Amino acid sequence: MTDSAGAPPLTQPLQDLLARFEAGEPFALARSISLVEDQAEGFESLLHALHDRLGRARRLGITGPPGAGKSTLTSALARLLRDAGETVGIIAVDPSSPFTGGALLGDRVRMDELATEPGIFIRSMASRGSHGGLSATTREAADLMDAFGFDRIILETVGVGQSELEIASQADTTVVVLVPESGDGIQAMKAGLMEVADLFVVNKADRPGADRLKKEIGIVNSLRTGGPQASVPAHHGVDLSRKSRPTPPPEPIEAWDPPVLMSVASSGEGLPELAAEVDRHHAWLRATGSLQSRRAAAAAEHARIVLERAVTRRGAEAWRAWIEEVGDDAGLAGRSPYETARILTARICRDAQ
Amino acid sequence: MRQVLDDPMDAGAELKAELERRRRALAEVEEALRQWEASAADTPQREDSDFSTVSGREIRPVYTPLDRQAFDYTRDLGMPGEYPFTRGPYATMYRTRLWTKRLFSGFATAEETNERYKFLLARGQTGLSVAFDFPTLMGYDSDDPLCEGEVGKCGVAISSLADMETLFDGIPLDKVSVSMTINGPAIMLYCFLLVAAEKQGVGSDQVRGTIQNDILKEYMAQHAWIFPPRPALKVITDIFEWSSSHAPLFNTISISGYHIREAGATAVQELAYTLKNGFTYVEEGIRRGLDVDEFAPRLSFFWDVHNDFFEEVAKFRAGRRIWARHMKEIYGAQRPESWRLRTHAQTAGVTLTAQQPHNNIVRVAYQALAAVLGGTQSLHTNAMDETLALPTEAAVRIALRTQQILAFETGIPNTIDPLAGSYFVETLTDEMERDAEAIFSEIDELGGVVEGIENGYFQARIASAASRFQKEVETGRQTIVGVNEFLEDDEAEIEILRIDESAGESQRERLAKLRDERDQAAVDASLEKLGAAASNDQNLMPPMLDAVRAYATLGEIRSTLVNVYGRFKEPVAF
Amino acid sequence: MNDKKIRVLVAKPGLDGHDRGAKVIAAALRDAGMEVIYTGLHQTPEKIAATALQEDVDVVALSVLSGAHMTLFPRVVDLLQESGMTDVLVTGGGIIPAEDAETLQAKGVGRLFGPGTATTDAVEYIRAWFTDRGVGRSTE
Ligand SMILES: Nc1nc2c(ncn2[C@@H]2O[C@H](COP(=O)(O)OP(=O)(O)OP(=O)(O)O)[C@@H](O)[C@H]2O)c(=O)[nH]1
Ligand SMILES: [Mg+2]
User: Fold this and answer.
1) Does residue B270 lie in a domain region?
2) Does the distance separating the beta carbons of C55 and A30 come in below 8 Å?
3) Cβ–Cβ under 8 Å, residues B246 and B204
4) Domain hosting residue B164, numbered range
5) Whole-angstrom Cα distance, residue B254 to residue B342?
C-alpha cells in the first residue's frame, strides 16, 4: 500500500518519532539518523514525510587528506558561526575497517568544546563500506539536519576516494583543506580534490612551506581553469558522475575562481576570512543562479541513487526467494543466467505493481 | 740517522703470536658453541614461552665471548663514576651512600598527608615524595566544578601556598628533600614550595628536592598538560634559568620514562623517548643562551622498573652511557657532572595485579633488585594493593621493608655494578644503545620531539606496543601469574584504604576562607604582572613567586597563563 | 536490508590522563566490528551525555581510574535518563572496588571491568547485552 506520493505510510512508532522530530527534540533527530544509517524499516517513508522541510540549510563540505586539520577547522568554523547566531549541524565521516566492519570515529576529539553547545549537533558516521550508498546516507543525514532546522550543515570527509568526492560535491560549497607537509599538493591532484574545490585552505600555515603550497595550488588551479579570466565553469566542470547522471544546466559566464586561503585552525587564525569567503561563494551561487542548478543536479543524482537502492533491494529480495525456491540448483537448473535474470526481473516488475 | 729499533722482527712476531692465540681461543669457543647448538637442537624446548623479553626482544639461549669481540673496557664501561658512566654515576656507589628510599605518597588533605609524612620519616624513610590529586596535577583549584569527586582521591590536594605550608608543617625543608610529581603546573607548585620554605626561614639556595617538570612525556603518555608544547618548554627553561643561580641544590626536572612505559611502551622506547626528551630540554636551554654546564648537572631521570629483569638492568646501564656520550660529544658539556645520568626509579605499577594481590610483593622485590643492580640513586617500591586503591599503611610498610631487606641483608650493595662483564648483560646493553640511536634518527626525521608529539607519532607507537602486549596476554603467549595462569577460585580479599568524600568539602571551605582573608587587590595586581610577563616573554619565576606570596591560587595562576598561551588538545592515535 | 551496527561511546571522564585502558578497549571493540566514538580525555558527565545523545549510541563505556567513579558513573546515568536515553547500557572499567561496583550496579550501571580483564570479556558482554535487548534501537 502506498500513499499518493508513492511512499508506504509510517508505522505508529515512526509517527511518534516524527512528532518528536517536529517538536524539535534532538533525541528524535539522532535516532532518525540511526534509522537512515541502518536503513531500518520505514526510513524512506520518514524521509519522505520530512521532504517538504528541506532546502533552508546551507551545506558546506570540508574535505582533504587525513590529518590535514579538517576537524579542527570544522570546529573553529562552527564556533564562529554559532557566535554569529547560526545553528550548525556537523556530520563527520570516517572510514570503516574493510576487514571487521568496525570503525573508530575520533573527529569529536577536536570538536570537544562544542559538545554541550546548544544549537550545535555533531554526528560521527562510519562509511560502512558502501559505495554509492555512502553519499546517499550522508545526504539523507544532512537532509534530516536540514529538516530539523539547522542554518548550516558542515560535512567533513577524508578526501581519499571517489565516494568522498561525491559527498563533498553535494554541498553548496566545497572547501578543500591541504597542508604544507610533503607532497600534499600532488596528492590532492591525484585524488581529484582539485576538481571539487570551491575554496582552498592551506592549513597549518604555522609550519614551513605554506606559502609555497599556496603558490603551487594557484598555479595548478589556473592551469586547470585556463586562467582566472577564463569563462569555464569552475565547479562540476569535470564529470564525476556516472553516465546516467543528468547534465547540469550550463553555468553562467561569470566564473568562480577558487581562492586559496591560509589558516592555523588550531589557533583560529584565518577563520574569519574563511567564513567570509564561504559567504562570498554563496552570494555568487545565488546571484548567478548556480545555487538552484547545483541543488537541482544534486537532487536528481540523489533520486537516481534512491532508485538504484530500491531496485537493488528488490533484486536482493527476489534473489533470496529464488534461492529458496530452487535450492542449490540456482546456478544450474538448465537455465542460462540470462533466462534466470529475465524471470526475476519480470517477477520484480509484477510485485512492484 | 735512522733509529734502529731493537729487533723489530721479534716484536712483530710476538704480536702475531698473541693474535694467533686469541684467534684460536675464539675458534675454540665457536666450535664449542656449534657443538652445543647441535646437541641443544635435539632437545625439545618448552612451549609455554617464546623466550623473548616483555618488550618482545629476542633473547638467545646462551651468550659467549663471541658476542663481545668488539668490546673495549675503557670505551664502553670505564670505572664507576667515570665516563661513560655505564657502571654508575658515582665512584663508590652504595658503599658511600645507599639509594634513597622514597615512597610516593599523598592523599586527601594537606593535614592528613602531613601526618603520613611524619609517620614515614619516623620509620627511616629518607626523602619525601609528594603525590598530588588530579585537580592539582591539572592545575585546577579544589573548588572548581570540574573537579567534583576527584579532590584528594589519588593524592593530596594543594590549591595554594596555604596548603603547601600545612603539608610541610613541622618538617624542616632544609633537611628533608622533597620530590614532587608535578608537570603541567610544575612551576606553580615549585613556587609554592619555595615560598613555604621561605616562611620556615629556609632560603631557596638551601631547598633540596626535585620537581618532575617533564612536560614532553605528558604529551606522549601521561596527559597532565595545560599549555601547548612550545610555551610549556619556554616555562621549563625559565625554571632552569632562574634556578641555576637561585636554587642550586634543587633538581629542576626529572626526565621520566616511567609514564611512557606505564602507558605501554617497550623498554627501548622508554629509553629512547626519555633520553630524546632530555636532549630536547638541553637544546632549549642552550637556545636560551644558558651554559650547558650550568644547568645540565641539575637534570635527573626517572625510570620504570618492569618485570624483565636483565632487560631492565641493561636499560639503566645503556641510559647512562648514551646520555654521557651525547652530552659530551654532541652538546659539548665539559663537566663530568653534566655527563652523568642520575636516576630515580619506581617499580612498574602496571605489573601489579588485582588478582592474588599478595603476589605483588614478590614482583616488586624482583623489580627493586633490578633497579639496584642497574645502579639507581633512589627507589620507590609500589605497595601490593595499588591496583585496588591507594595503599594502606600496612602495605606501604612492606614496600619499604622490601628495600631495607635488599639494602641490609642481601649483600647486593657491596659490589658496584656486579653484572658488568656478563656476556649477556653487556650484549643487551649494547643492543639497547643501538636501538635507541635508531629511534633518535627516526625522531629527527620527523623534525624533532615536538613535531612528533603534534602529529601523534609517539602516542601511536606507544599505543601499538600496548595493544601488542595486551594481545600476548590474552592469547596466553605472555603468562601473568594469577591472571591468565595459576588462577585461584576464591581469592582472599585484602583490606583497602578508603578516602572519604570529606576532602573535597574541607578543601572548598579552606579555599573560601583563603579567598575571603587575603588581600584581593594584591592578588589581582600580582596576576596582572604575571600575565604581562608571559605576554612579553619574560622569565615567569619572579612574578610567579610574588603571586604565590600574595596567596593567588593554583587555578588563578593557571587561567592567567592559559589566556596567554592557550591550551593543548591531544592528537588522536590508536 | 537492516544493517544494524553496535555503536559505543568510549569516554574518559574526570581529570586523570590514563587513557591506555580506554584506547585498548576502543580498538578491541572496533576490531569486533563495532562503531566506536572516541572523544578524548577530560570529559565531563554533561559532555558524555550530550555526545551519547547526538551519536545515538547503544553503549556508553567509561574508563575511570581517578577514584571518582562513585561520582561520575551515577552522574552519567542520571543525565542520560534525563535526556530520554533510557535504553543505553552504561558500562566501563577502572580501579573500582567490588563493593563500589555493587553499589553502582544498583544505580543502573552495567558490569564494570577491573584491571587485568581480557578485552574479549568486554566485547562479549556488550554483544550479549545487545542481542538480549532485541532487534536494536527502538524508535521511541
Ligand atoms: N600546527 C598546526 N597543527 C594543526 C593545525 N590544525 C590542526 N592541527 C593539528 O593537526 C592534527 C590533526 O588535526 P585534525 O583536525 O584531527 O585533522 P583531520 O583532517 O580532521 O584528521 P582526520 O579526520 O583524521 O583525517 C591535530 O593534532 C591538530 O591539533 C594548524 O593549523 N597548525
Ligand atoms: Mg577529522
Assistant:
1) yes
2) yes
3) yes
4) 75-438
5) 9
Residue B343 C-alpha cell reads as 636516576
Domains (range + CATH), chain C = 7-132 (3.40.50.280)
- Residue A162 maps to a domain: yes
**Structural domain count of chain A:** 3
Place of cell 558524555: C48
Instruction: Give, for all 353 residues of chain A, the pLDDT tens digit.
Output: 444 455 678 899 999 999 999 999 999 999 999 999 999 999 999 999 999 999 999 999 999 888 899 999 999 999 999 999 999 999 999 988 888 899 999 999 999 999 999 999 999 999 886 655 678 899 999 999 999 999 999 999 987 767 666 776 689 999 999 998 756 666 666 667 778 889 999 999 988 888 988 988 888 877 776 654 433 344 444 444 444 445 555 555 578 999 999 999 988 999 999 999 999 999 999 999 999 999 999 999 899 989 998 888 899 889 888 888 887 665 666 778 888 889 999 998 888 77
Q: Are residues A26 and A109 in the same domain?
A: no
Put simply, whether B543 touches C (Cβ < 8 Å) is no
- Here the ipTM equals 0.93
CA of A209 to the centre of ligand 2 (A): 22
CA distances from A103 to A37, A81, A126, C23, C26 (A): 14, 29, 6, 13, 9
The number of folded domains in chain B is 1
- CA angle, C56 then C59 then C62, to 5°: 115
Would residue B63 count as lying in a domain?
no
Minimal Cα distance from C1: which residue of A? A39
Give phi and psi for A67, each to the nearest 5. 75, 10
In a domain, B54, yes or no: no
A74 and A132 share a domain?
yes
Q: Does C127 touch chain A (CB under 8 A)?
A: no
CA distance B545 to B526: 9
Neighbours, chain C (3 or more CB pairs < 8 A): A, B
Identify whether B375 is part of a domain.
Answer: yes
- Range of A31's domain? 1-53
Query: Does one domain contain both A272 and A302?
Result: no
Q: Strands (DSSP E) along B363-483, which ranges?
A: 378-380
Q: Show the 3-state SS of A74-102.
A: HHHHHHHHHHCCCCEEEEEEECCCCCCCC
Amino acid (1-letter code) at residue B264: G
Cα(B251)–Cα(B286) distance, integer angstroms: 18
Cell matching residue B352? 601489579
Which atom of ligand 1 is found nearest the CA of A205?
Answer: 31
Q: Give yes or no for a contact between B205 and B248, defined as CB atoms under 8 angstroms apart.
A: yes
For residues A223 and A125, membership in a common domain is answered with yes
Q: Around Cβ B296, how many Cβ atoms within 10 Å?
A: 26
DSSP B334: -
